[in-house]
Design goal:
two-stranded antiparallel sheet, about 40% helix, globular
Length: about 350
């Protein structure tokens, strides 16, 4: 198994920003070019082998959190200087303290709701590095830890500001240690979508928000006031998260009718994730209540149950969620019906 480099900001958005020549966005354009080069260098390099999941991870009982926050000090060397470990008082550095709290909130969702013992199911320590690079426009999971940039200050603010971003990136670790979905084409879009789903659920669980109360936005709070947009992505309405003179319009499709065929971004993993994202939202909307309950359990069981192939297509994944709904809730149950209807709505044929 090999670990992909999974970042929150899509390459197509960085590419658009990197081309800007307006003086007021000079720092943002330069920062985007550097971040894009970083993403491309990781994607072109040989992926490093991932550690194998520990034996019996699905039987391990959730343990306490074990967090360590490091400060890269503007360098691109990991992990950096240790600034806060489990149980330490707040540092006063917003990025370090937001990362610490975000790791804890994510651990709590998996432990309390799904009975999972950390990201790997076996008590993996949660490590994060803040202040990575100079004005770095991204956050990423590198197969072993979280890494956060500070943003350029013109378009992006610090990446620890959004709990859904922290939950998203750590969910890549859950996928890595369970279904190990390939990071290309539809399997890659599912990989990204699973991270959006559980990133949204972490945020909703901490805020105790119902499906109706939640924003369903990924990366809310990342944009500066200069940007005409609310977030990187909308699960409720893919394609509507931003519409900005500099960034352009959110290109995500909301059904297979507008599926994007492309070789860029590993076959469109960030663009086409909007389709399964909307399917999850539709299930949650149909059932009401809290999305981490039945909808979350169905998606979690599908991801971690052991039957999902690494190269799963949308159709294979949709069938697997329907099977999970039957296993958990029964054939013909409201949950099963909601899953079937959601995939029909986004035009994924079972």
């Amino acid at each position: 198994m090999h670990v992909p480099f999974c970042s929150i900001v899509p390459p197509y958005l960085l590419r658009r920003l990197a081309k800007q020549g307006a003086p007021e966005f000079s720092s943002a354009a330069r920062a985007a070019r550097e971040a894009l080069g970083h993403v491309e260098s990781f994607h072109s390099a040989r992926s490093k082998p991932a550690p194998e999941p520990p034996a019996g991870v699905r039987q391990a009982k959730p343990g306490p959190t074990n967090r360590s926050i490091f400060d890269a000090g503007g360098a691109e060397i990991l992990p950096g200087k240790l600034v806060r470990k489990e149980g330490d008082a707040a540092t006063g550095d917003p990025a370090a303290d937001e990362a610490y709290e975000g790791l804890g909130h994510t651990h709590r969702l998996y432990a309390d709701v799904f009975g999972r013992n950390s990201i790997d199911g076996g008590g993996l320590p949660l490590n994060a590095t803040v202040h990575f690079g100079k004005l770095y426009d991204n956050a990423f999971w590198d197969g072993t830890q979280m890494v956060f940039g500070d943003g350029d200050g013109e378009v992006f603010r610090r990446f620890t500001k959004s709990l859904s971003v922290i939950g998203h990136e750590l969910a890549h670790g859950v996928t890595q240690y369970s279904a190990a979905l390939a990071y290309r084409n539809q399997a890659g879009a599912l990989n990204e979508s699973m991270s959006d789903v559980f990133g949204a659920l972490v945020e909703q669980y901490v805020r105790n928000q119902s499906t109706a109360e939640a924003s369903w936005l990924i990366g809310e709070g990342l944009f500066t006031p200069e940007v005409e947009g609310s977030a990187l992505r909308s699960m409720k309405a893919p394609g509507t998260a931003y519409d900005d003179d500099v960034l352009g319009k959110d290109p995500q499709p909301d059904s297979m009718d507008t599926y994007v065929k492309t070789s860029a971004d590993n076959g469109g993993v960030h663009i086409n994730s909007g389709i399964p994202n909307r399917a999850f939202y539709l299930v949650a909307e149909s059932l009401g209540g809290n999305a981490w309950d039945s909808p979350g359990r169905i998606w979690y069981e599908t991801l971690t149950g052991g039957s999902l192939p690494a190269t799963a297509t949308f159709r294979v994944f949709a069938r697997a969620t329907a099977a999970s709904a039957v296993e958990l809730c029964g054939s013909g149950s409201p949950e099963h019906d909601a899953v079937l209807q959601a995939w029909e709505t986004v035009k994924v044929k079972l």
